[in-house]
Design goal:
This protein is of the alpha+beta class and about 100 residues long. It has two helices and five strands, in the order βαββββα. Helices cover about 25% and strands about 35% of the residues. Strands 1, 2, 3, 4 and 5 form a five-stranded antiparallel sheet that branches. β3 and β4 form a beta hairpin.
């Protein structure tokens, strides 16, 4: 990691939010072909980032049957890519 403090945010994520994040992931060259089906339960996105913005990771989870199950892989970015991704998350008001 970067040696900077880590922040973790767990946010409820509706259709608009999840679409915007998936678009950001695709723009970064990530394979974001997972399906988010709100009818199966609430969707959450867990975002972990360093305070210096040189590391960002996120994963989608879905709350079903009293458990949060992963819906996507963990996507992580370091360095300049992390800084750019973090700025895009701020732009869509996720962080």
């Amino acid at each position: 990691m970067t040696g900077s403090s880590i922040v973790k945010k767990v946010l409820s994520c509706g259709r608009k939010c999840s679409t915007e994040i998936k678009d950001l992931l695709i723009d970064c060259g990530c394979d974001a072909d997972f399906v988010l089906d709100e009818a199966k339960g609430s969707i959450y996105v867990v975002v972990v980032f360093s305070k210096d913005k040189n590391y960002v990771a996120l994963q989608f989870l879905q709350y079903t049957s009293f458990l949060c199950n992963p819906v996507s892989d963990v996507f992580s970015f370091e360095g300049v890519k992390a800084q750019d991704f973090f700025e895009n998350l701020k732009r869509i008001k996720l962080i």
